[in-house]
Amino acid sequence: MKQKINPGNKIVKNAIKLFLLFLSLSSLSCSDAIEESSPKFNLNFIYTTWFHSYEEQALDGEIYRPYWFKDFTPSRYRRTFKFTTDGKCKVLMLAPTDAHYELSCNWQYDELESAIYISSESGKGIYRLKIIELTGELLKLQTESL
User: Among candidates 111, 138, 116, 113, which has minimal Cα distance to 127?
Assistant: First the structure.
């Protein structure tokens, strides 16, 4: 003899509520995981030469613009980064004698920190660049020398 489940039964109602609660919480945690796994910035914008636009300095970071963005005012020194798709980069450095030289480096992006690590070809750390904002016309960084 088959027993019918009475939808009016409190146990069944509570079980259905628990199941629906479980489903809704599961879907929330899944959407969070999808958001966390998607990249925060479109790194395709990084592959160019960026000039430090100190005239536009912001409180929350240094402003960099692509080389083609504008005619930059004359400056004794303007830091530049040139990133390529093969993990190489060139950094315009300022020597203690006020001379400028271009340093060939390697770069690596840490997605968890949203930071670019630049190291010399010998592996010595030079910069940690925390990306605050990245678009085709703007790179906002918090720069830390290593």
Answer: 116
pTM (global) more than 0.90: no
pLDDT at 35: 45
Closest C-alpha among 99, 103, 59, 60 to residue 80? 103
Among 134, 132, 135, 130, CA closest to 145: 130
Give the per-residue pLDDT at 97.
87
22 and 48 both lie in a single domain: no
C-beta separation of 85 from 47 below 8 A: yes
| CATH classification of the domain holding 66 | 2.40.128.370
- The pLDDT tens digits of the residues spanning 56-67 come to 988 889 999 999
Based on the domain organization, do 112 and 141 belong to the same domain? yes
Structure letter (DSSP) for residue 107: E
Nearest CA-CA partner of 68 in 131, 135, 137: 137
| Segments of the chain scoring below 50 in pLDDT | 29-37
Please tell me the predicted confidence (pLDDT) of residue 76.
86
14/59 same-domain check: no
For residues 122 and 67, state if they share a domain. Answer: yes
Structural domain including 19 reads: 1-38
